[in-house]
Design goal:
Helices cover 73% and strands 1% of the residues. The protein is mainly alpha-helical.
Length: 326
């Protein structure tokens, strides 16, 4: 991770001063770095054994973080978010134009890192994931303010906007390690299920978290009229009057007034919509752990054996993800 962080800082440099300034604002805010961690851990668990200057998985991990960061910059502009990781969002500090353009720069940097790595399979996985990410965000935009969205459609949206990049991070780690297809597929499945759990919890926290702990504004999804599982669960469990409240605040989004967020939080608590969402996240986290079990144990003394503790680390990541508070 230390090598990956050095790579991230080195690659966000540019002769145009605003670019490293804005990128540093996000880096300084310090995210979880979960996606690059997944690349590194998946590669090692799959048997990647190179150390020193030519560690390919470090460049790929930095590339995944750049793709993620670029989408964050763009998403915050689209959502008009004011907070990111507990600090003012880049668009709030530097403006929308700079955020969009620096997001473009980071995407382009990601392509440069990939072409330097030179692996066509890695490029294929990450370019496909980038397209899926964009599709997920567009799908989310089209389901916004629409309470007829099914749970299946919602799950498709969160697969696109979050889980696809988690899956790609884990799969590219396996590809760098030249792992056999069964290991590659198990790691891809682990990442996909982990990403689903991660986004479900994210959507639950928007209605259940302590804002100071969460690091972004509680109730953002509500104010934007996003149709997430907590809203769908509360809407479907509500009586006629409660459903009318959701239609007014989510579908006729411009009609929100003072006190509506508190009423939404009350209804979500009353219908146990958070419990429903967290239970679904727990199922995905358990599926992620099951996927890891499909990777054969390394024989003692083999090259892969000393990486076995990473299996436990990845199990812990899945369980943490389904129970986190931020």
């Amino acid at each position: 991770m230390a090598a990956c962080n050095r790579e991230i800082v080195a690659r966000m440099q540019s002769d145009v001063p605003l670019i490293p300034q804005l990128a540093a604002h996000l880096v300084a805010a310090g995210g979880k770095r979960l996606r690059p961690l997944l690349v590194l851990a998946a590669a090692r668990l799959a048997g990647y054994d190179k150390y020193g200057e030519d560690m390919r998985h470090v460049g790929v991990a930095a590339c995944v973080e750049f793709i993620h960061t670029a989408t964050l910059l763009h998403d915050d502009v689209v959502d008009n978010s004011q907070l990111r990781r507990g600090l003012a969002s880049a668009n709030a500090v530097f403006g929308n134009k700079a955020s969009v353009l620096v997001g473009d720069f980071l995407f382009a940097r990601a392509f440069q890192i990939l072409t330097a790595d030179g692996s066509l399979p890695v490029m294929a996985i990450l370019s496909a994931a980038s397209a899926t990410l964009a599709e997920g965000e567009v799908m989310q935009m089209t389901t916004q303010n629409d309470l007829s969205t099914s749970v299946e459609q919602y799950l498709k949206v969160i697969y696109g906007k979050t889980a696809a990049l988690f899956a790609a991070a884990c799969e590219t780690g396996a590809v760098v390690a030249e792992a056999p297809d069964n290991v590659r597929e198990a790691l891809r499945l682990y990442g996909a299920n982990l990403g689903m759990a991660f986004q479900l919890v994210d959507d639950a926290l928007d209605y259940a978290a302590d804002q100071a702990v969460l690091g972004k504004t509680v109730g953002d999804d509500f104010q934007e009229g996003k149709v997430t599982l907590p809203v769908l669960a509360a809407y479907h469990a509500g009586n006629e009057e409660e459903r009318a409240f959701w239609v007014r605040t989510i579908e006729n989004n411009e009609e929100q007034r003072e006190g509506d967020l508190q009423r939404a939080l009350d209804l979500i608590a009353q219908t146990d919509a958070i419990g429903v969402t967290m239970a679904r996240a727990q199922e995905y986290a358990e599926d992620a752990v099951k996927a890891l079990a499909r990777i054969p144990q390394a024989a003692p003394g083999s090259a892969r054996h000393h990486h076995e503790p990473l299996r436990e680390l990845l199990v812990d990541v899945a369980l943490y993800t389904a129970n986190r508070a931020r």
